[in-house]
Amino acid sequence: MKRIGLLTSGGDAPGMNAAIRAVVRTALFYGMEVYGIRRGYAGLIEDDVIPMDAYSVSGIVPRGGTILRTARCLELLEREGQEKAVATLRKYGIEGLVVIGGDGSFRGAKVLSERFGISTIGIPGTIDNDLEYTDYTLGFDTAVNTCIEAIGKLQDTMESHERISVVEVMGRNCGDIALYAGIATGADAIVVPEVPYDLSAIAARIERSRSLGKHVNTVVVAEGAMNGDAFAALLKSLVKYDIRATEIGHIQRGGTPTMADRVLGARLGNRAVCLLNEGACDRVVGIRKNEIFDMDIIEAVSLKKQFNKELYETLQMISM
Ligand code: F6P
Prior knowledge:
Elements: E1 3-8, H1 16-29, E2 33-37, H2 40-45, E3 49-52, H3 79-91, E4 96-101, H4 103-116, E5 119-124, H5 140-160, E6 164-169, H6 176-184, E7 189-191, H7 199-211, E8 217-222, H8 228-236, E9 243-247, H9 259-277, E10 283-288, E11 291-296, H10 297-302, H11 309-318
Parallel strand pairs: 1-2, 1-4, 4-5, 5-10, 6-8, 6-9, 7-8
Antiparallel strand pairs: 2-3, 10-11
This protein binds 6-O-phosphono-beta-D-fructofuranose.
């Protein structure tokens, strides 16, 4: 394979730049040419393509976001959009495409390979950690760490005022950000889409903790379960303490990536290009038990995400 393309698609995630750098540098190692496609599939449809060399990815690892920029592109769902995308690939002689994104982005990649014979490799890039086939997605670790920092700051002020902090975090339909951030900040409870919540049990736990001398409580709510304000309003009817709801919002999607996301980006990006070099297509790369592996793209997106019940039970057991 002589020429490959690279794009980031869907919501951005810290660590995408580390993956971009690894893709470009690995391709150059194998003597391939690399084209960066800006703004995801939208840029592919609109021919927003730039050649990438070793220098174009210098110094990008510490940067959050994606230097290629990204978009959510509905046009790729239509035949006309797909044909335009493929025309751009043919124009530049791009034979293989690396797609960094979530499951929607992977489905787009599959269409391009199935209908038009483009070799595609997917790299899981989303803060949501909502892909079952891989233990972690790129950006999840950084997003959780950003939430941890924000929740810590909230806990300082909430404790001074003896308040309850209800914190809404992202994750779409997946409760992983809430679960990991909740465990890591000693939250009293988490509310996630995967487990029905028991409002009176949460209120009782808060009361018990106060009777034991605690002055602050934290409840982390995943956006896929409920809006933080709405949960705070419900809780207010059962407890006498002052409550403040805070939505962390898009702050959790930015920032310099953690070591885990930088290294994961490098490993996934490297493997993606090694696969293209070996002639593989329709694959996704992921990490399981700290080993990088690859599997069929459709098989990967058809797996239903399983919630980590064990970790959830741990939280239930160790919060007061
Ligand atoms: O998929 C990443 C994510 O940040 C989700 O957690 C969130 O629901 C969504 O994207 C927000 O999307 P947007 O940036 O388009 O508002």
